Amino acid sequence: MLGYALRRILHSVPLVIGVSIIGFSLMHLAPGGPLSVYTLNPTITAADLDRLRAALGLDQPLYVQYLAWARSMLTGTWGYTMFGGRPVLDVILERVPATLILMGTSMALSVLIGTALGLLGAVRRNSLFDHLATTGAMLALSFPTFWFGLMAIYVFSLQLGWLPSGGMYDFGMEGNLANLLRHLVLPVGVLTMVLVAQWSRYARSSFLEVIQQDYIRTARSKGLSPRRVMGRHAFPNAVIPLIALLGVQLPAVFSGALVAETIFSWPGMGRLFIDALSMNEYSVLLGMVVFTALLVILANLLADIAIALIDPRTKLR
Fold this sequence. Notes:
Blueprint: H1 2-29, H2 46-55, H3 62-75, H4 88-123, H5 128-142, H6 145-159, H7 177-211, H8 214-221, H9 226-248, H10 250-263, H11 269-278, H12 282-310
């Protein structure tokens, strides 16, 4: 297992390099450039821009700039921000805990609830519950995340006044768990509702495919109870595609968190991405592209290992 994991990590190195090259090239093809913010300042002259460009190394050929940036990635700084001159990695790591709290809570709830709804829908196929769950999932998937977020703020914050409309803590309440949970309710509720709709559809399809297999009919013909058939034979096989899906869904969850963090002013990586984009902080944007790629690779590696542990038929070569 350790050898398999090491091989997968080595195979991921070219992928990360490719992502970094493509991301770096696209950032430099974007209109404006990293110094475009300064052009809005009437006190900045063309000579000042030339000095800034030389100080930041932006007057060098593109491949020289990439090699300098790649060297900073290897040394652990990941470059420096345009405003403040802070190491990019420090800026990103400051936002990771907030995003992990939001994404982790939403993902855990959506997987548990969505899998349970999908299982019940498959077992009670074409029942009233199945039709209601399918209709509810289609409705949830038909509206964008930002619409649900705005409606949640309007109803529960502005009209009812039950929950805060944004932020991670109230002023002066930093570190208070109860206050954090109050601020989590709305963004987690919005993200979970959308993710549950997706997971329930995936889980229902996976369980339907499994319970129609010959070995399930054989287990039933032997007189095994429905609970034992589902728990011992159907569930381990139906959950394998869901684990694989969990490994590849991280970018989609991050994009959902990006919208939710923007709407609810949650100080995570999604909000950092929007702020960096508005200020043309290309070094931060590049760092987040690479960081997200590393998370996706790690998630897929863990998913493959989990599948191998659950399914003995899987051979790690």
